[in-house]
Specification:
Helix content: 25-40%
Number of strands: 23
Strand order of the largest sheet: 3-9-10-16-13-12-11
CATH topology of the largest domain: BirA Bifunctional Protein, domain 2
Radius of gyration: 25 Å
Structural class: alpha+beta
Strand content: 25-35%
Shape: globular
Distance between the termini: 20 Å
Bound molecules: adenosine-5'-triphosphate
CATH architecture of the largest domain: 2-Layer Sandwich
């Protein structure tokens, strides 16, 4: 695929396109907005759904060793004691004594103070306090009485629902090790410094999978899932030079991986600053037998596994690829962005903005564009649009304005194919399909449009 723009992209460009075209709006905008909370608009929700669907196909549907689950967000408070989150799910926080803002102590080098003119924390002349640990879990109360016995937490990760259901899932599915349990759902973290659009928010969606295996095979599966998850982004069109793996140093390992585990991040080069900044897109961790053992201890229920072939009983090790649906959606959006200069029909140089989404991720798969509002042209176009839509393609129908403008609009939505219906279509039963990337046009029988477009979305489920 030809790309003309590989650098110089800023987040401002992405945020303004996202708003202009209905990908992402500020939450509660008419009330002045709620900081760091975002709403996905009509095309954004489709894009994010497609990202989650592609993940599900790859991690669940296309495999015979992974099943899925959908757990509640509120869980028994003891879960968070056992998991270590109450004690250890903290970030170091410092306060500025002058402007009273709070910052994550381990991110001071990349943060800016919200006061204007915006400076690095402490550069306003204010003294920063010593770092202290701040727990990131959101607290609430269950039921009508707001006392300590009613405290509940919004889950900070979906993984714990999987661990506490390990026995239920294993016995009902009769799965033998190794096998995985996947879950997609919302998580909540009271982040000290949210920001960078949808990258770091307090409410977000995760796509997590816990892969249970024999301890002696943990290293092998850890390597396998790192590679598999890295490749998934490449298969869906992320540019190789924008993706990298970074192993965690001993000092940054999560509490569950401190002793025998390991973690690595799949990082994307987000355009948060000039030249881009490498930031975590997905984490892959060897969580060892930490979680199952702890839940066994705290609940008094045995969560070990018995292997009938070897007659061995043990606590499985767990390999976890944990991706963020919002961060992945943002990465696919940023990476798809391209601009090129084209010469219009009137001979003028124009900038064409294109979102070069992989066809499977494109919010709109096909746009049907009648060349004029006259009959029988409109009737032919409408019939085609109806038939494509009811067969499951994500379609748009657009009759407003000149055809050039309509193409530009679809390019900015990332629609891979535009089908134009012209005056000949009613006579010869054909339409013209325009390819988003090459802008080449092909004449196809109306009956074959569905097959033509659908063929581009099929292929390997992974
Ligand atoms: P970070 O270091 O950026 O705070 P993390 O290492 O705490 O992230 P994990 O606990 O590994 O994140 O969570 C798995 C994934 O969930 C992350 O890779 C990311 O994609 C997503 N995620 C985590 N926190 C947030 C957040 N505040 N907003 C959006 N997505 C998030």
């Amino acid at each position: 695929m030809k790309r003309t723009m590989t650098s110089g992209l800023t987040m401002d460009t992405i945020v303004s396109l996202a708003k202009r075209r209905g990908f992402v709006f500020q939450s509660s905008e008419i009330y002045g907005g709620l900081a760091s909370c975002w709403d996905y608009g009509p095309v954004g929700v489709e894009l994010k759904r497609n990202v989650k669907e592609a993940w599900w196909r790859s991690v669940v549907t296309a495999r015979d060793d992974v099943v899925a689950i959908d757990c509640s967000i509120l869980m028994h408070p003891r879960v968070w004691e056992a998991s270590g989150h109450l004690e250890s799910f903290t970030d170091p926080l410092v306060d500025c004594k002058k402007c009273k803002n709070r910052f994550r102590a381990d991110q001071l080098h990349e943060l800016r103070c919200p006061e204007k003119p915006s400076k690095r924390p402490g550069e306003c002349g204010g003294e920063l306090t010593e770092a202290r640990q701040f727990n990131l879990m959101f607290k609430t109360f269950m039921g009508p009485v707001e006392d300590s016995s009613a405290v509940a937490y919004l889950r900070p990760e979906t993984a714990q629902g999987i661990f506490v259901n390990f026995r239920n899932v294993q016995t009902t599915t009769r799965k033998k090790l190794p096998f995985g349990i996947a879950q997609v759902g919302k998580s909540f973290r009271n982040e000290i410094t949210p920001g960078n659009f949808t990258f770091r928010t307090r409410e977000f969606e995760q796509m997590e999978m816990e892969f249970f295996c024999h301890p002696s095979e943990a290293e092998k599966w850890y390597r396998y899932w790192l590679e598999e998850r890295f490749d998934w982004y490449l298969r869906l069109g992320i540019r190789k030079e924008h993706l990298r793996l970074r192993d965690h140093g001993r000092d940054e390992l999560a509490h569950y991986a401190k002793e025998k585990g390991a973690c690595a991040d799949i990082e994307y080069l987000y355009p948060f600053e000039k030249g881009g900044r490498w930031s975590e897109l997905e984490g892959v961790a060897n969580r060892t037998d930490y979680d199952l053992k702890r839940h066994g201890e705290f609940s008094g229920k045995d969560l070990s596994y018995f292997d009938p072939a070897t007659r061995e009983r043990y606590h499985p090790y767990v390999i976890e690829p944990a991706a963020g649906a919002d961060r992945a959606t943002l990465a696919f959006l940023v990476d798809a962005y391209d601009e090129e200069t084209i010469i219009s029909a009137k001979g003028k140089a124009e900038t064409r903005v294109i979102l070069r989404f992989h066809p499977r991720l494109a919010p709109v798969q096909v746009a049907v564009l009648p060349l004029s509002k006259k009959e029988p042209l409109m009737e032919v176009a409408r019939k085609l649009y109806d038939s494509l839509r009811v067969r499951g393609l994500r379609c748009e129908y657009d009759v407003a304005g000149g055809i050039g403008k309509r193409y530009r609009r679809q390019d900015e939505l990332g629609t891979p194919f535009c089908v134009t219906i012209d005056f000949d279509s009613a006579e010869d039963g054909k339409a013209t399909i325009r390819d988003r990337d090459s802008m080449e046009q092909e004449r196809v029988d109306l009956e074959q449009v569905f097959g033509f477009v659908q063929a581009k979305f099929l292929g390997d489920a992974r």
